[in-house]
Structure formats: C-alpha cells, structure tokens
Amino acid sequence: MFSGRCHKALTDGPSMSGTAETPEELFAYLDRLGIAHRTVTHAPLFTVEQSRALRGSIPGAHTKNLFLKDKKGALVLLTALEDAVIELKSLHRRLGAQGRFSFGSAELLRAALGIEPGAVTPFAVMNDSERRVSVILDANLLRHETVNAHPLRNTMTTTIAARDLLRFLNVTGHAPRILELGSPRHESASPAAHADS
C-alpha cells in the first residue's frame, strides 16, 4: 500500500505474540518484554483537549492517535505529538495511499484493534494479529525520552520510553514508518485536533 522501505519485525528470541482485552493483559505483555511502564488512572478522556489537564502530573510526550482508512480500505494508525497539525487532505500523497484518508468507523476500530473510540493507542496493535494496520509515527514524538498513551482504555495513561515503544511495535510485527508528520498546532485547529488523546 505505502511507498518506502519495508521494515522487518524484530523479535527477542521466542515469540511474544498475544492479544490484550484489558490494560492488565497489556501490562503483563510489557512485563514479558522487559519494558518498564508506569500508569496513572484518571477520569475518561476522549480528546487531546480533555487530556491537557493531566500535563502537570504525567510528564513526557503526549500523543494524538488517528485511525484512518484509504479508499481501498487499507488501514493506518498514525501516532503523533498531541499538538502536531496533520493535514489529512494531503497525507495520502505522502504515504502513497490509494486516495484520501477518512477516519475509520467505530465498528472497524473494534474489529481491527479491539478497542473503543476514545481509546485509540499504539498499544492496540498487539490485537492486530492479521497485520491489517500499518503504523506511522511522527519523528518528533521520538525525540522525547518518554511517551504517553492510553493502555487500551481512556481512563488510564501509560508512560514508556520512546525506544521501548519502537521495540513494542517491532515485536508485534508492526514496525512503523517514521515521518515528520506535522508542525505544532497554532490558533487555528485542524480537523485532526479532535483525535483521540
């Protein structure tokens, strides 16, 4: 679907594949991978704007996550810094997709990643055993030491090292494409500004 180099999944010996329906199952998976993680519980958060209230208590880079599909039905999970402006109208040309992207439906999100709207997260790719979803990461996100994302529920935020996010994605067979995705948001918000936190 996308142009660019293919990345081979990296594994650390025996297969670590699995799925997670609960945060606890995700945490156990991270533990098996030897990935340190810290989680804070909070009120449900559905947008980047709502999650800004947590900035004082949860340090590190905070993400926006877009679940997208192109006109041929190819699926993409895009994870960027929360204040990145993502131009959806032109994104398909940068990624070599078949036509413009639109947001995937709630039903498609559940079927592909096993999560609900409002909880879109890179951690959910462990539920994509069929490798239907391609992952795109904002290069700016990886310039931070730690990254925050929901652990399959929007009532929690989990912090891991940026290098461990890459390792997690590789081990699950979702080696990401890393691109400079967008500049920090200014006063005028783009449609992507209302993406999941």
What is the domain tally?
Answer: 1
Helix content bin: 10-25%
Low-pLDDT runs: 1-16, 185-194
Number of helices: 5
Number of β-strand runs: 8
The topology string of helices and strands comes to HEHEEHEHEEEHE
Shape: globular
CATH topology assignment: YbaK protein
The CATH class is: Alpha Beta
Q: What is the mean pLDDT? A: 81
Description:
Helix content is 21%, strand content 21%. It is an alpha/beta fold and 197 residues long. The chain has a single domain, classed as YbaK/aminoacyl-tRNA synthetase-associated domain (YbaK protein), CATH 3.90.960. Strands 1, 2, 3, 4, 5, 6, 7 and 8 form an eight-stranded mixed β-sheet that branches. The longest helix is centred in the first third of the chain and has 11 residues. It is globular, with a radius of gyration of 15 Å. The N terminus is likely disordered.
Q: What tags apply to this protein structure?
A:
197 residues, alpha/beta, globular, 5 helices, YbaK protein
Structural topology:
Elements: H1 23-33, E1 38-41, H2 48-51, E2 61-69, E3 75-81, H3 88-95, E4 102-103, H4 106-113, E5 133-138, E6 146-149, E7 156-161, H5 162-171, E8 177-179
Parallel strand pairs: 2-6, 3-5, 5-8
Antiparallel strand pairs: 1-7, 2-3, 2-4, 6-7
